Amino acid sequence: MKITDIQFGMLRVPLKTAFKTALRTVDTVEDIVVIVRTDTGHVGYGEAPATAVITGDTHGSIIEAIARFIKPRLIGQEIANLNHITHLIQTALERNTSAKAAVEIAVYDLFGQLYGAPLYKILGGGDPVITTDITISVDYIDKMVADSINAVERGFESLKIKVGKDIGLDIERVKAIYSAVEGRALLRLDANQGWTAKQAVFAMHNLEDAGVVLELLEQPVKAQDIDGLKYVTDRVHTPVMADESVFGPTEVIDLIKMRAADIINIKLMKTGGISNAVRIADIASLYGVECMIGCMLETSISVAAAVHLAVAKSQSITKVDLDGPSLCQFNPVEGGVIFNESEISITDAPGLGIQTIHGLELISV
Ligand code: MG
User: Fold this and answer.
1) Which has the closest alpha carbon to 30: 364, 361, 365?
2) 18 and 139, same structural domain?
3) Which end of the chain, N or C, is surrounded by fewer C-beta atoms within 10 Å?
4) Are residues 42 and 190 in the same domain?
5) What confidence tens digit (pLDDT) does each residue in 254-298 have?
6) How far does residue 292's CA lie from ligand 1's centre (Å)?
7) Neighbouring-strand partners of residue 328
8) To which H or E segment does residue 45 belong?
């Protein structure tokens, strides 16, 4: 099975409600789909969103990185040589992690197809059912409380609460949601870099003293402020998770050795795909550090890959934040991963099991 071509598509899916964080507001998922063709007729699919404020990747840069730098190296490569191919992808150019992730996902999809097994089995196997949380966007308190209650009624037992806009209001937001869903759902707090280190410690002490129990606090400070992240981690009881502060395996090693965070949020769009995500999960496992698997605003192509990884690496990936598909108005993909609100399961279809992508618009490059 040799790679013969790489093509691009655009996939647009409207969200049920606008996705609002301290960094941005988005109402439609618009992702680049990567289609890797082979001489046997097998097709692999990958996906990447433009997340300029986090990874720096845009639709244009994703297409350019793949078409000009990655694709020329991959044409003619045997899918069986997976490790060689991932090396070619990772060394094709610096950064551009979302572009690399999209291509890696498609190649791993084909690798699973080559051996007739779902990707999670190729990655080591596991129990193919996981449970995800759902994001509650930052908004007026009443709206956030209503959204939280609605999510609990839809069966979600973990809520990812977006804060980081205004410290005083953020504390009130969390207290109101906590009292509305106490005992029915775990709360994860994501400040998306919106606080200073001192504000984060102040907010967490206030909440902890008020008896608000949070499962974790995610990325309280700016991505580059590792000292600030450690300052918060050293001073609060609630476990602190690094998201935008860590992309690849070497950064994870540094972060763990500094004890700057308690938990690592792995996202394929930050790691550059599955090969480095596997490394991070294994590094974390060696150090006894837990990981969350997260996603950007992605549909069930790239999120499916994250699901397979989470199942295979459940030893260290103990928390799942793969709500991209459940935030969408509909699922454009008929495939091997079944997204049913909080429950996600994998069928026995080879690779990612993707059969059809509805509404995919081909892009000529
Ligand atoms: Mg986050």
Assistant:
1) 361
2) no
3) C
4) no
5) 999 999 999 999 999 999 999 999 999 999 999 999 999 999 999
6) 10
7) 15
8) strand 43-49
